[in-house]
Design goal:
With 249 residues, this protein is α/β, with parallel strands linked by helices. It has nine helices and eleven strands. The strands form two sheets. Strands 3-1-2-4-5-6-7-8-11 form a nine-stranded mixed sheet. The two termini are 19 Å apart. The chain binds iron/sulfur cluster. The site of iron/sulfur cluster has 10 residues, from loops.
Length: 249
């Protein structure tokens, strides 16, 4: 049974309703804000199809609800009352920027209520980012090398996104799998260094629930990728997807 009760099946007004798969309180499991407590708002769909994605099955089966702006704000406020205080509200997915018309209404409401906003994004929709940028406090931007994702390359989109996003606090994450090409990580590093070499750059070994970081991916980071990144960037870190190790959402 859905948390939201009986729902319409189709999204008719994309500015005042959205597709939500989950809203919950938990600990941030990735990147430099590792371990802070957040309210996670997980949007349904994504514009990409990464081979390692945990959410693809939900997307395929359309396991999400149509939720109005008022319903979502009430749910966020209730979680803040019950489980707070939280560090921030994380807009995640799927791809939250695939719902930019809705975010243009949600984000100012969250700011008015005093929440800090944290956008977790695949970094491929620069125009959509521009339209919501003023209400984003922290941007967690993924870079998506095609050898890691199995999807097409998004180099131009990533460059434009990074240039736009740097008006706010931003860091970059790259998921490393055993298939990740060294030359593609070098391309990610060059892309970031050419825009701003001080952007925090996180190498994130593919991590499976229960079994921890992929050993081959971690060895690749330790033996080559970290040094390649450090040769051009000032703030490089390797951080696994810790929520999968902790066993939390
Ligand atoms: S960008 Fe994120 S949500 Fe979208 S398919 Fe890739 S891993 Fe899944």
């Amino acid at each position: 049974m859905s948390l939201w009760g009986a729902r319409p099946r189709r999204l008719t007004d994309r500015s005042t309703s959205t597709e939500i798969s989950e809203v919950f309180s938990s600990l941030q499991g990735e990147g430099p804000y590792l371990g802070v407590k957040q309210i996670f708002v997980r949007h349904g769909r994504c514009n990409m199809h990464c081979g390692y994605c945990d959410e693809l099955e939900k997307m395929r089966e359309e396991r999400f609800d149509i939720v109005t702006l008022e319903e979502l704000c009430s749910r966020i406020d209730a979680l803040e009352m019950e489980r707070g205080p939280h560090h921030s509200v994380s807009l995640t997915g799927g791809e939250p920027l695939a719902y930019a018309p809705f975010l243009r209404n949600l984000l100012p409401r969250l700011k008015e209520k005093g929440y800090r906003t944290y956008l977790e994004t695949n970094g491929t929709l620069p125009r959509e980012l521009e339209s919501v940028l003023r209400w984003c406090d922290i941007i967690a931007m993924d870079l998506k090398p095609p050898t890691s994702t199995g999807d097409r390359a998004f180099w131009q989109e990533h460059r434009a996104f990074l240039k736009t996003g740097l008006a706010r606090e931003l860091f970059v994450k790259v998921v490393v799998t055993p298939e990740t090409g060294v030359e593609e990580i070098a391309r990610c590093v060059d892309l970031v260094a050419d825009v701003n070499p001080h952007v925090p750059f996180i190498l994130q070994p593919l991590t499976a629930a229960g079994s921890g970081p992929d050993k081959a991916a971690m060895a690749l980071i330790e033996s080559e990728l970290f040094d390649i990144a450090k040769s051009r960037l000032s703030d490089v870190r390797a951080i696994a997807q810790m929520h999968k190790i902790w066993g939390v959402r």
